[in-house]
Design goal:
- Helix content is about 40%, strand content about 20%.
- By secondary structure, it is α/β, with parallel strands linked by helices.
- The chain has 2 domains: about 1-170, HUPs (Rossmann fold, 3-Layer(aba) Sandwich); about 185-275, 2-Layer Sandwich (Pantoate--beta-alanine Ligase, Chain: A,domain 2).
- The strands form 2 sheets. Strands 1-4-3-2-5-6 form a 6-stranded parallel beta sheet, sandwiched between helices. The chain has a 3-stranded antiparallel beta sheet with strand order 7-8-9.
- Helix 2 links the parallel strand 2 (about 20-25) and strand 3 (about 50-55).
- Helix 7 packs across helix 8 and helix 10 runs antiparallel to helix 11 (about 220-230).
- The chain is globular and about 55 Å long.
- The structure holds adenosine monophosphate.
- Adenosine monophosphate (AMP) binds near residues 38, 145, 171, 174 and 181.
């Protein structure tokens, strides 16, 4: 496994291995089994696997969140070595955003709702860094988790609109035994917070149960989901959404496949989760 901080070496290796198929797994590090499922899938489907580890400052709308974001690079590198990854890029922020940096990639409508509505500027940071990664690594495939459902939809839009010749591979959400979606931010939960954090999954499961049982009014589903979360005294709801999975617009009536998704603060830790429900 080769590890670099600069861009030059990434380009050299990529150019020298032109004829191989490359899979890229973009991450912000503090790796867990969710990330590793992407890495293993990339390993199984490509001749070369690259992983980027970069806590992208421009996608954080909250400076406190950026400061508290866990960083465990040494451990991450050991985990990636064990998975037989070929290339890891761990740049300092000055290399990604040199002083005169002034270009951003903006996806429009689909970034305005859900995460985009409550985290202004977040997706502009995501699409900009992902476009840079795609140009640098020129992967055949990029592996993205459905945990960040909207992120995947936004990147898909960017790839289509800007004609990146890259196949996006969506990977299912990996959960803890009690249902909590794995996230690098989970380590910031207190012991009590960790217990209460299962309310996101419980609420999603209840939402799915109601839809499966025939409930078609989104407000009714949202209300019951809200009640479950609010039974937990450390939880504050950012949003609970029942949306069209294609454009992520909020629905009144549930008619076809829907995306139920939510963002909840447990104390000051912001967690997201989602579930697709077929009707
Ligand atoms: P992050 O390091 O949080 O930026 O995540 C890097 C990639 O891993 C993204 O494509 C995420 O969607 C994906 N990911 C994070 N957590 C999970 C999870 N629990 N299950 C599946 N994929 C995940």
């Amino acid at each position: 496994m080769q590890t670099f901080q600069d861009i030059e070496n990434i380009r050299k290796i990529r150019a020298a291995e032109q004829s191989k198929t490359w899979g890229l797994v973009p991450t912000m590090g503090a790796l867990h089994e969710g990330h590793m499922s992407l890495v293993r899938r990339a390993r199984a489907e490509n001749e070369r696997v690259a992983v980027s580890i970069f806590v992208n400052p421009i996608q954080f709308n909250n400076p406190d969140d950026l400061e508290k974001y866990p960083r465990t690079v040494e451990r991450d590198l050991m985990l990636l070595e064990d998975e037989d990854v070929d290339l890891v890029w761990t740049p300092p922020k000055e290399i990604v955003y040199p002083p005169r940096f002034q270009t951003h990639v903006a996806v429009e409508k689909i970034t305005q709702v859900l995460e985009g509505a409550t985290r202004p500027g977040h997706f502009l940071g995501v699409t900009t860094v992902v476009a840079k990664l795609f140009n640098m690594f020129q992967p055949h495939r990029a592996y993205l988790g459905q945990k960040d459902y909207q992120q995947l939809a936004v990147i898909r839009q960017m790839v289509n609109d800007l004609n990146f010749p890259i196949e996006l591979v969506p990977c299912p959400i990996v959960r803890e035994a009690d249902g909590l979606a794995m996230s690098s931010r989970n380590v910031n939960l207190s012991a009590e917070g960790r217990q209460q954090a299962t309310c996101l999954y419980q609420s999603l499961v209840r939402g799915k149960e109601l839809i499966d049982a025939g409930e078609r009014t989104a407000t009714n589903v949202r209300r019951e989901m809200t009640d479950i979360v609010l039974k937990h005294d450390r939880a504050t709801i950012d949003y609970i959404s029942i949306a069209n999975p294609d454009n992520l617009n909020e629905l009144e009536t549930i008619e076809r496949k829907v995306l139920i998704s939510m963002a909840v603060f447990i104390d000051s830790v912001r967690l997201i989760d989602n579930m697709e429900v077929e009707v």
